[in-house]
Write a structure and sequence with these properties.
mainly alpha, 2 strands, globular, 9 helices, two-stranded antiparallel ribbon
Length: 199
């Protein structure tokens, strides 16, 4: 979280190397990224507003609840909803404009995709019994994140600093939320409605 705060302060005050990075807008990214690579990552555009990531997070929580993972499902929903509130408040606070274009800061795309992939890695991947299956799933998740990050750079309302800030904020929020999970999961297990849940 400290790294995110430092980056945000430097970006907001237009200082140093980070201010230079904010000038790397989507037109420069399009000039650098070859057409074949842009076509390859085009499917990642469906995550451009974080809506699909949010929907997939809800679907994961729904199925986890049905398979007796009620406490992890509750943690996922609470982490995602509070994270959605947090990033929208920050986006209103950091009103950035680069070359006449309003920049969404932090990037919602990298934030929600990082949350989504982390949920899968923490809860679902360990349930896969075969090493090959885990490796294939991890590879797909990594490529999905890279594709989303590059797509973010190619979007007119994001830039490199915004994408990095979204990623760092998601990691910090996950760590913060995991601490609450460790403290309260056992207590929640003893409550009615969660007593038969895995955690």
């Amino acid at each position: 979280m400290l790294l995110f705060i430092v980056i945000s302060i430097l970006t907001y005050r237009h200082q140093g190397f980070l201010h230079t990075l904010t000038q790397i807008d989507y037109s420069i990214a399009r000039a650098v990224v070859p057409n074949w690579l842009e076509n390859l990552i085009k499917p990642a555009y469906i995550f451009s507003h974080g809506i699909l990531s949010g929907l997939l997070i809800f679907v994961i929580a729904f199925f986890l609840w049905g398979f007796k993972f009620k406490i992890p499902a509750t943690w996922i929903l609470l982490t995602s909803l509070s994270g959605w509130l947090l990033i929208n408040i920050l986006s209103l606070f950091f009103n950035l404009e680069v070359n006449g274009t309003k920049i969404v800061y932090p990037a919602h795309t990298t934030f929600f995709m990082t949350l989504l992939i982390s949920y899968i890695l923490l809860i679902i991947i360990p349930e896969i019994k075969h090493d090959l299956g885990q490796f294939i799933c991890q590879t797909i998740l990594l490529l999905s994140w890279v594709g989303t990050f590059m797509m973010t750079l190619l979007s007119p309302n994001y830039n490199l600093v915004s994408a990095l800030a979204g990623w760092i904020l998601a990691i910090a929020w996950l760590k913060f939320s995991e601490n609450f999970y460790r403290v309260y999961a056992g207590e929640l297990y003893r409550r009615k409605g969660f007593s038969n849940s895995w955690y």
